[in-house]
Structures
1.
Amino acid sequence: MSEPIIKFTNVSKTYKLYKNDKHRLIGIFLKNYKHTKKQAINNVSFSVERGESVALFGKNGAGKSTILKMITGVCFPTTGEVAVHGIVSALLELTSGFDLESSGRANIYLKGQILGLKDEQIKSLEQGIIDFADIGEYINQPVRTYSSGMKARLGFSICVNINPEIFIIDEALSVGDTAFKNKCLKKVNEIISKDDVTLLFVTHSPAMAREFCTRGIVLSQGKSVFDGNIDEAIKYYESTI
């Protein structure tokens, strides 16, 4: 049996909270400088097999975002182990990793490299990304000249056109006008219909979860409190809200 594409083993994540930025800066140099602690994740273990579609449920502050950040490599566990085997595309912070002084075209390569692709792979995807983003001649202009909508269109286009093995979606995603949103939804459905793509779907909507996922994990106060069939997960989640 092949190894899971995502595996969390006894993972905990504790954040240090400081009164202000000055205290945070001092805390970098003085390990025990005054701060409070917030445990975002508490001894969570689960694994996801290649091709599974899993919904993450939980109230705000339950730990969903922290789990996604660890899967995407934005942050790391305080204790425990996170193993991820595959190219991750996350429809979360679409414009993260952009260099505002570089052109949109240059940022395609920059973000592609951040996502683990080689230049020759990015080159083969470049024109498709540009065509999907549909921002015209701005593709050769510095990203600092873009509107927020244009940045999001380019970020979305990169995320959905890199042939991800692990696809993470936040239902709150909203990009551009109605026509572009419909184009995005069509592309997302195209990606998740592939048998070898693993989907993690963060949602508060049982109906959407049931449409896209076969399994659900319910989080509460940093702990995994239910993991099972999507219908049973929805029933459990609804009983807690």
Note: The first helix runs from residue 21 to 29.
2.
Amino acid sequence: MAELWYGSSVRVCVFDLDHTLVSSPLDLAAMALEMRAYIESCRGALPAREERYRVGELVRWCRDHAPDISTPVWDIALDHERRAVAAAWLEPGAREALIGAREAGFATALWTNNAREVTEIALDRFALGDALDLVVTRDEMTEMKPSADGWRVITARFAGVRDAVVVGDSWVDGVAAAAAGVPFVAYRPREGELARWKITPIAMLEDLTALPALLRGRANGG
């Protein structure tokens, strides 16, 4: 990883990992179903509801109600992530977007809900680590996205952030960006999910190589 940027006035471009820089067959719904099944085998049925329980909600439930089973629940998540990263592929234009962000005057950070172990495997395999100034995984956060806690970690490392954007594919990234008060750039999003969660990106990209021009425009007052 590159040396961190410090200074009185820093611009930061924050990237999501899954389906933004790197894609994989990770199935969060399947992960959540297995986690829920384990929790219910230990603690009985969770309250019924129309929507499925999401991974972050199940983790939070364990933390608040059954901390003694938090470790095996996290192990389920890590097992899914390990298997998915083995079949991961680099998103087209990912490295160009990172290098272009730097050239536009932005420090680069990663903000992902993945474990650090799995994140480092992906960054090493695709040689992305040297293009990132900071990597924030769930191991450094107290709450995963859509919480903005990762932004707290980012601003603790970069002094004097004057401008920032968050780049991601999911409503989770958009909600986290909004909670942090940071503009959101959506990469190949599901537009119905953006509408449902009332997320208004400043831009929607189909091609990551278009990002540096957008950032140059911001840096030049556009």
Note: Strands lie at 10-15, 22-23, 89-90, 106-111, 134-136, 161-168, 184-187, 203-205.
3.
Amino acid sequence: MISCGFSVIPRYLEKQQFPKDAIAEAKVTHVWAQDKKIATHIAKAALIDNVVDHYTDMIGQVDGVLLARDDAEMHYEFAAPFLKAGIPIYIDKPLALSVAEAKQLIALQQYPGQLFSCSALRYAKEFKLSESELAQLGRLHHIHATVPKDWDKYAVHVIEPLLLLAKKRGTIVRTQAWRNKDATTLVAEYSEGLQVLVSTMGSSNAPLTLRVMGDLGWKDLFFQDSYSAFKSALIEFVQGILRKDVRIDPEFMLEVVNLIESGRAP
């Protein structure tokens, strides 16, 4: 696991105890990657029994699929066979880079709730506010969100939690996006008076944070616990399979993708 390519992963995994901290209701049994050496490495690191030669070999062998790729432009190609086969699928963030592409994926569902897609940070404890905490802020006027790295892959991490916080936002009335070198900023104004500002900071050493401002007060929210958020997202996906229900409304998925697409606009 140390050589997985992402140094933070072994650091948060070493704080857990397995199998006690694993998800009891599900087990990863098959893995595929475009390079079989990588798939074999993943299998050894994560104790996965089967490495398949083609991703569609999993059809008929599994109860659900994790499409753990954040190259959204490839999501339709990889997800379509599983969606058409009626297999529940968790599509990594972002679902798509345009609303048109997202609608194509959602339209392939054989039943409601088959497609699950989100940033795991929608489940982050650090980005939750209780009713009393929200009351102390008053009517929300501004949410400023920052996240490191690039827009296409990382904006979704703050877009989802901020939309969940701003329940009474109404509809978008205006957006504006601009870029400065490798940083991107989007401003979105809503019919209920809320203004949202989302910035991906490129190569800058930026925090992953939300600043929530109302007419009575403000609060800074900082993301810290990757393991808890990722595990919560996987539990939601598994529970959706077991209970055969909808965990994330497709209209919400489309709203998220709409903001991502707006930030990509020239």
Note: The two ends are 40 Å apart (CA to CA).
4.
Amino acid sequence: MSEACQILHEWANGLQKFSHNSSTEELPKNGIYMVFEKGETAHGTDRIVRVGTHTGQNNLGKRIFEHLYKPKKDRSVFRKHIGRCLLADNPFLEQWNLDSTTKANREKYKNIIDFEKQAETEERVTQYIADNFSFVVFEVDEKAERLRIEEGLLSTITACEKCFPSKSWLGLKH
């Protein structure tokens, strides 16, 4: 599996890289994305730290926009996890974990969540993404195929004996 993972990393690192400043209009309408984090390496290349896709047809750009640009942690588990890592030793983490997506939940938690602190944390997450992440995408039109390929990519990376995070990887805090 390590050889397959090396081939995957070499191939992914050869694709056009995008960053926080990239326009999502340049992306295919449907596909899979792989994220790299500054300082993380595997197989002599940048290490893939996340693989993802989308379920709605023609929705890849919107999904990536939600991860990279939209300060709404409840719309992106990726953003929520980064916030959890940044708040690892902070008591605000308990509030960050509450889901305030719906109006009913915002009302329910209005006296519990410090929404100003939440907005500050969202800004920290956005800045961390801008400073540390790049990503590649490749087109896969059909939803079932996207999900199957995403699963295979994740399995390949997970089973690799040579892919592991650095000791300072933020993801280790969550």
Note: The beta strands are 18-19, 31-42, 45-52, 133-139.
